[in-house]
Amino acid sequence: VFGLDVIWTPEFSRAGWLLDLSDVIDEVEREDFLEGPIKANTFEGKLYAAPWYVDGGVLYYRKDLLDKHAMAPPLTFDELATSAQFILSREKDPKLHGFIWQGKQYEGLVCAAMEFIYGNGGQVLDGDVAVVDQPQAVAAIDWMRKLIEVGITPELVTTADEEATRNIFGSGRAIYMRNWPYAWNIFQRDESAVKDKIGIIAMPHFPAGEPASTLGGWQLGINKHSRNPEAAKRFIRFMVSPDTQEELAIAVGYKPSRRSVYYRPEIQEAQPFIVELLSIMERTQPRPVTPFYPRITQILQAEFSAVVSGIRPAEEAMKSAATEINKILEPARE
Hints:
Largest sheet: 5 strands, mixed
Oligomer: single chain
Order of helices and strands: EHHHEEEEHHEHEEHHEHEEHHEHHEHHH
Distance between the termini: 33 Å
Radius of gyration: 20 Å
Number of helices: 16
Structural class: alpha+beta
Strand content: 15-25%
Shape: globular
């Protein structure tokens, strides 16, 4: 049995490494699973991996600071920018940042950037054609750089990953943070500087788009050449069953890939924010579902980083990205 990152399934499927699992989770049972993971694990009409647990980008906010300044959690990026600037101007704390996110040149930057792009109605691919150079995507990436230029986001995000941003926010030095749900339990520890001072909402959006959360999480697949495929299938059925997902959610913090588990009383008692989180997980969108993604993301990481670091204008960088990605996708178009 393979444990698969959500971005690996198309590549492994195309290579012929995975067994078709369409009979493990039939069409009826798939209705209980979140749409994003099912879409990400389907290749050429067949399900090649079972969603084990999910992840999605969320916006953390300092509930105490927003309450202090009589502000509601932001629904749009403009609201986020306005409220961050207002609070920073009133707090006058040089150590306090407005909005932090993962800006280092790695996969985490792609995950964060996709939420800006999707939130502006943009895409990276349209079928087997790159469209990351279209106005919606260009404007979204350009806005990420502008956050740094106007001082809402500190320059340090260009070297920051999940843990770096978590530590900044967890020490009380940021108003807003984009990260994954795992950080919630850490922030709620007794020794945390932000215990009971934080909230989680969906990522904001631009006027042209809707809230979107980049899909993360892990899947279970079976080696096509397994000598024990039936035993492997039984194991996967057990691991993605509602009871197992509930146990893993409470004991480890894994977020269920099944909708029904979010409504179980035991998990709601252990994690009161879980139902609200479900509404965010319903909006998860996978990164481009293509077997060529490992090569595509290397291009996106470099070009996104060039923009947020102020090395290259967004329009120029996205045009370069689209050109290189289209070269990679030529075999798919043929």
